[in-house]
Amino acid sequence: MIAFIIIFSFLLYFIEKWSMDNALRGIEFYYEPSKLLVEPSEEFEIITTITNKTRRVAPFIRIEERLPSKIKVHSENLNLEEMPHDLKHISSIYMLPREKLIRKITVSLEKRGRYILQGADLSGGDFLGIRQKKEEFLCFNEVVVYPKEAPLSDIYWKIGDFLGDISVKRFIIEDPILTVGFREYTGREPMKNISWTQSARINRLMVKQFDYTTEPSVTVLLNVECEDADRDELIETCFSLTRTVCRMLEERCIKYDFLTNANTSNAFSEWSYIDEGLGIKHFLTILEGLGRAFYTSIEPFKTTVKKIADTFNMRSLIVITPCKLHEHKNLLESIYGQNTKYVLMISASEIK
Questions:
Q1: Residue 193 to residue 183: CA distance in whole angstroms
Q2: Tens of pLDDT, residues 245-266
Q3: Within 34-182, where are the H helices?
Q4: What is the phi/psi pair of residue 65, to 5°?
Q5: Most exposed among 112, 197, 321, 342, judged by the fewest C-beta atoms under 10 Å?
Q6: What's this model's pTM, rounded to 2 decimal places?
Q7: Are 163 and 157 in contact (CB under 8 A)?
Q8: What are the beta bridge partners of residue 119?
């Protein structure tokens, strides 16, 4: 009898040790959002997949999924626990051999930004149900929330009037590519416009006569350099205004490029300049960058402005800034001179 008890105890010990060592062996965990890019307050799903790849039963698995702290959960009957830096969704499951479990929870995010799904902590029980073994399953999936549309109705008129002026600007500015003829040199034209072939033919200086621009074009310039006490709120307003401006350009089929000194996450480091374009892909690229953008600048606004000085004469410019307009007016005039009549400046601090 004593020998049986000893053998049974050793057997129970080894089974318990084996079950503890292999509590989570062959268990895989993964979760991801159903959408990577969403509107503020738009509902989407977080899809969780747990797989048991072994031929044994997993009698108890406790799952603690980490969710962003600002996420809003719409699914009911969930065990949620608020933590200092995130929100935990806690559940327990029983898994058969080779079983795959997929579940979905409906969530939303109200504030613009980039949110990370970092993973979960899984705990597996032992043979006797006394102890648990805990392991961390890391994931790195992100959700980017676009900025909201600017709700200010009075700015629509200001932008609308400016875009109307751009539409007729094509009859004022000449296109240096489209030559339609020649005329006599008056001394006011730049030397590069002189046609030396025509001048030699008729023995007097002649300059090329250009056609007007074939279509209007705009540069949207977003500045986030600001020292105001409410800088974060002002810059957030700038992101919304930028979205509204780009949408109106899309609606009027006016091609535009985009330039900013805003800093973004490493995954979107080339976003500071978006080449000229038009269409949903062009627009969504800018929106994604606005969703990822931080409240810090990568360079002074003066440096950003100088980057487009050479191309300004052929384009109109819309400047969106958190600062008061007089702070940038002198800077723009010093670089662009009298051409600032083709500049629209929108200040978040003056339309709050």
A1: 11
A2: 999 899 888 889 999 999 887 6
A3: 153-169
A4: -80, 135
A5: 197
A6: 0.77
A7: no
A8: 66, 138
